[in-house]
Write a structure and sequence with these properties.
Blueprint: H1 2-8, H2 14-31, H3 39-43, H4 62-65, E1 67-68, E2 75-76, H5 83-87, E3 97-100, E4 106-110, H6 112-125, H7 148-158, E5 162-166, E6 173-178, H8 179-206
Parallel strand pairs: 2-3
Antiparallel strand pairs: 1-6, 3-4, 5-6
């Protein structure tokens, strides 16, 4: 408003400018996620908040930090859960392992602990344990192109600390993302910030 009045000297336009600017600000604040000045930058892939600060969880995507399924985590639903197979799985007892059907699409997830319990129950009842019996289907899946901020919101809303990552087109597992991956992205940002704080004072002394 000040710039407009100084440039044009159209003082009778002050009241309409006040009304229009106030209405625009009141409408854009709750509707737009970002300001009009940062929207074009955000469309290029760098998400900024309205305060022009970069959220570290917005600058990383799931595909950049997830644990790929090639690391011994993929199981078939019809597969027999033997002690040898369970021992060959990577990760802790509570780590997620995607379970797929015959076409390779995700049907759920399981853990070494659940597989061990199913194997123990099968040994007691003398029936072959199948991975499907130890599979949980209710856990939500995420996509590789989602930002870590979206995953943080998902974990906060559901109380989960890990989730499978799937290709949205084929529903094939691409990996697993956990709370540790979110923290590693935040740690990466803190490390860069600490490095900048150490470099700037040195440059100031040299100058």
């Amino acid at each position: 408003m000040v710039f407009t009045l100084e440039l044009t000297h159209a003082w009778p336009a002050m009241l309409p400018l006040v009304i229009a600017s106030t209405a625009a600000s009141a409408l854009s604040a709750p509707v737009l996620k970002r300001s009009v000045l940062t929207e074009k930058i955000a469309r290029r892939g760098l998400h900024l908040t309205r305060e022009y600060s970069t959220d570290p969880l917005e600058t990383f995507f799931v595909r950049e930090v997830m644990q790929p399924v090639e690391h011994g985590r993929l199981l078939a639903a019809h597969e027999t859960a033997t002690h040898t197979r369970i021992g060959a799985l990577h990760g802790s007892a509570g780590a997620l392992h995607p379970v797929v059907d015959a076409e390779g699409a995700l049907v759920g997830v399981t853990t070494r602990r659940r597989l061990a319990d199913a194997t123990a129950a099968a040994a007691a009842d003398a029936w072959p344990p199948v991975v499907r019996a130890a599979t949980v289907e209710c856990r939500p899946a995420v996509h590789p192109d989602q930002t870590l901020r979206q995953i943080a919101h998902l974990f906060a809303e559901t109380g989960l600390t890990s989730a499978p990552v799937v290709d949205p087109a084929t529903r094939r597992p691409a990996g697993v993302i956990t709370l540790r991956h979110l923290l590693s992205a935040r740690l990466h940002d803190l490390t860069e910030e600490h490095h900048r704080e150490r470099v700037l004072p040195r440059r100031a002394v040299v100058g």
